[in-house]
Amino acid sequence: MFTCLYVFDFPAQAALRLEPELVRERQNQVPVVLVDGPASLMRVVATNRAARDLGIEAGMTKLQAEACGPVEVKKRWTENEEAAQSALLDCAREFSPIVESTAPGTVILDLQGMERLLGPAERFVKAMALRAQDFGFALNVGVAANPDTAMYVARGLGGITIISAGEEAKRLAPLPVEVLSPSPEILETLDSWGVRNLGALAALPSVPLTERLGQEGLRLQHLARGETQRTLVPHEPAEDFIRSFEFDDPIENLESLAFILSRLVQELCAKLASWSLAASELRLKLEFESRQMQTGTDKEIYEHLWKPPLPTLDAKFLAHMAYLDLNAVTFSAPIKKVTVKVLPAKPRAIQSELFSPASPEAEQLAITLARIRGVVGSSDDSGTSCVGAPQVLDSHRPDSFTVQPFSPLSAKADGQHSPVAAFVLRRFRPVLETTVELTGHQPHLVRLWKKYRRVRAASGPWSSSGHWWNRSLAWAREEWDVALRMPSGTVLYRIYLDRKQGGWYVEGMFD
Amino acid sequence: MSAVSSLRAQIEARLPAAFAAYKRPERHFILTGIPQIDLVTGGIPISALSEICGSGKTSVLVSLLSQACQEHYCALVDGRDSFDPASAGTAGVDLSRLLWIRCGKTRQDLPPLEQAFKTADILIQSGGFGLIAVDLSEFSDRLLNKVPLTTWFRFAHVVERQRTALVFVEQQPHAQSCAGLAIHLQAQPVIGPGNLFTQLEIKAEVIRTREKKPVQSIMTIFSLRSQWA
């Protein structure tokens, strides 16, 4: 048994399927035309039914089309059609491993033996149609005992058509001859004979037909009778998990991007699921419209990489994580194209240890951290992350640290942390410039918070230095711990003299 | 008697919880690691808002983090990026279990104080952390006095439903009755032999607690040694 999924008005649907404002009207309620060609002479290359009802045909110029009535004009992007075809194949592959990419907008599935898995034909074709809607397609479905019949009934008849074995000729009879896509010469000949539907073609005597139209005529007659049998040419799915969408009108708001992003991620996750894989990385690339008229090829590109805590197929979670980070970024130009790529990995399951502390749930934590980054920012001017687990660097340079991604899954208690109650330093970042008056070699007055503070006691100097082998990174300082008389009492501060720069600084206070 | 029974039955039929005895939930605590404070307070209460104020608060906070990270994952919302990982690591804090959020480091729409409050809100709502500490020490009292009491009440109300201890570190207490525990500290450096600062003598006053009665303030004095002593 073979099933054909046929997306009518495929170029128009490919252009519309990911656009939220026209999703509701994609059932041919809004006239849409696709134009292509040089800017001075754009011609209509595809229309939907509503546009054809207005009298718009392929080949018209853009102005002629617009003169027929209110119509949505969109530029044709072949990348969108390729992406739509890939999505259609992924949708079909959810129901059968043998899928043929017959033509743009047309795929045929071999469902031999699948009834035991999917159920009766009436049930699974409805499931296919609904699933195709999730991918943004409105389509016709044809089911027959041979692939060609299934394809022609899907192309010729609307909705879902199921043909039992032996009824092919009867059900194909009313369809017009054009559905077989014969050559113009044969079509003209058949029309001159008064043969306008497949029933009339099937009724012609075969030998005289062959004499006049050749083997092609005989082939067409076999198709009209539903007698052909062929094996499908299975489509080998590409192993790249990448989807892109190019906007006809560049978008400036994130809400439109979020909708497209979530649809693309959803399609990629569906493809991953069909391969029994999960997403371990999500890469996003945004291309912006150049605002510079002089160099039209200049492109601004934004790229970002997200790694979920575990390989996941949760499309909603991946899209939400990406959106939260995008929300914190300001873009200087409208977005013209979005490309999403996922890195596949085998799904993993983590079993928590019995004696480890309760930790935030991994996916919820990723969302929480993304939300926090949206509030405080991702990294400071030096590139150090603002959100994460601190890590002291193995360096003698004071205040040498980095911030690592916070991950309870990888944090393991090493038993080397014995709590010690001690007074600690509270740092000023950046360090405060100050002026120090010395008596002998001892600090006597320290200027802090715009006033000179008397030093009650000072401990030092404690000299330290490092990186002497690299002139640009070398540092040397002389530290003092000073107890300053402040309005609230005596407070202990750490100050130092930068021997390289020659200035005094307040590093922090012991609190 | 029968009239009373009948009346009780009618009320119970309409309001089943009218005669239910309210059971105070059992409190759990996280020890600060400073015995003198733990003795008078029992530790920092979980599912409650606490305040640590005055001078010496950072050392008490780091001691609390070192204890809490033994059994929980903790979060520190650093209002002005003043946390010193090296000191904390030496004090025994397991830094791999600490989520450090550094506010005010990038140009964002919100000022650092609002970043700190919003981040704390996100962390409490997400759950999963045993201790959330919000360091507001570098913000002036004038600024913190402008925070409406409803904000503190909302934090206290939300954290009651979580198994999280929420601690605010400030110069002065601001949460008033929303805080289940408020400790005020007064630190004085002690100069040791050789002109070395080896000790910080801290006078701690528990100015508010729900756990120990009577309610008058409780004083205790303790010393913290330096990390080089």
SSE topology sketch:
The complex is a heterodimer of chains A (511) and B (229).
Chain A: E1 2-6, H1 10-16, H2 20-23, E2 32-36, E3 43-47, H3 49-53, H4 62-67, E4 72-75, H5 78-93, E5 99-103, E6 106-110, H6 115-118, H7 121-134, E7 140-144, H8 147-156, E8 160-162, H9 168-172, H10 184-192, H11 198-203, H12 206-225, E9 242-251, H13 254-274, E10 278-288, E11 301-306, H14 315-327, E12 335-345, H15 362-376, E13 387-392, E14 401-404, E15 425-434, E16 436-439, E17 442-448, E18 451-466, E19 475-486, E20 489-498, E21 504-510
Parallel strand pairs in A: 2-4, 7-8
Antiparallel strand pairs in A: 1-6, 1-7, 2-3, 5-6, 9-12, 10-11, 10-12, 13-14, 15-21, 16-17, 17-18, 18-19, 19-20, 20-21
Helix pairs in contact in A: 1-5, 5-13, 13-14, 14-15
Chain B: H1 2-14, E1 29-30, H2 35-41, E2 44-45, E3 48-54, H3 57-71, E4 74-78, H4 85-90, E5 98-102, H5 112-126, E6 131-135, H6 141-144, H7 149-159, E7 165-170, E8 181-191, E9 197-209, E10 218-225
Parallel strand pairs in B: 3-7, 3-8, 4-5, 4-6, 6-7
Antiparallel strand pairs in B: 1-2, 8-9, 9-10
